[in-house]
Design goal:
The structure holds two protein chains of two kinds. By secondary structure, chain A is an all-beta fold. Chain A is built from no helices and eleven strands. Chain B is mainly β. In chain B, 0% of the residues lie in helices and 50% in strands. Chain B has no helices and eleven strands. Chain B has strands spanning 4-7, 10-13, 19-25, 32-38, 44-51, 57-58, 67-73, 76-81, 90-96, 107-108, 112-116. In chain B, strand 5 (44-51) and strand 6 form a beta hairpin. Classes of the chains: A mainly beta, B mainly beta. At the A-B interface, strand 4, strand 5, strand 9 and strand 10 of A face strand 4 and strand 5 of B.
């Protein structure tokens, strides 16, 4: 069935270091890959997304790369700050009727140590 | 960005009763809304896709008679947890996409913390 795997489950970095979170998906037809940040007790917020027609996208300190052949995509956060601490979820868009549904990865708890 | 409002944010109910959760898109229309369930420190598990004017599409393993979904308008979907039991206690969260868009940002409600006692 549809599946999105995410690693690592927890990640601790020093302030200023980079953080990388990796995901793999199972459905080769997936063509949209968003990343969400969820702070404790709050709703998930989109931080960046990528579509299958591009291999990389960057927005300031955040970048996402996509390898369609390997069905991998990764989130890169540079110059991490304490406010980056949160749970990060990757997702892959799966065709489901009139619209595409999002299947989420298992999440990564990122802790940025000051 | 677009705003999705979910109500109530917290609810405590007795075992055997039913609870209704509302999900509203405040400044856009959404043909489709999605209902997720999230256990503590776990991922968002898709329960069902709510379609305006038609039956919801449930994910495998989700009981449609237990989790009733109604999407009566382009701005409102409701999830009713029927005959709730303690194991139904969880964080329920909805999301919606702007009408007509397929592969774009899904906006999330603030979630509903359900506790069944």
């Amino acid at each position: 069935g549809e599946n999105v795997e995410q690693h690592p489950s927890t990640l601790s970095v020093q302030e200023g270091d980079s953080a990388v979170i990796k995901c793999t998906y199972s459905d080769s037809a997936s063509n949209y890959f968003p990343w969400y940040k969820q702070e404790l007790g709050k709703r998930p917020q989109l931080i960046i997304d990528i579509r299958s027609n591009v291999g990389e996208k960057k927005d300031q300190r955040i970048a996402v790369t996509l390898n369609k052949t390997a069905k991998h995509f990764s989130l890169h956060i540079t110059e991490t700050q304490p406010e980056d601490s949160a749970v990060y979820f990757c997702a892959a868009s799966i065709k489901g009727g009139a619209t595409n549904k999002l299947i989420f990865g298992t999440g990564t708890l990122l802790a940025v140590q000051p | 960005g677009a705003v999705v409002s979910q109500h109530p944010s917290r609810v405590i109910c007795k075992s055997g009763t039913s609870v209704k959760i509302e999900c509203r898109s405040l400044d856009f229309q959404a043909t489709t809304m999605f209902w997720y369930r999230q256990f503590p420190k776990q991922s968002l598990m898709l329960m069902a896709t709510s379609n305006e004017g038609s039956k919801a599409t449930y994910e495998q393993g989700v009981e449609k008679d237990k989790f009733l979904i109604n999407h009566a308008s382009l701005t409102l979907s409701t999830l009713t947890v029927t005959s709730a039991h303690p194991e139904d206690s969880s964080f329920y969260i909805c999301s919606a996409r702007v009408l007509g868009q397929v592969n774009t940002e899904a906006f999330f409600g603030q979630g509903t913390r359900l506790t069944v006692v």
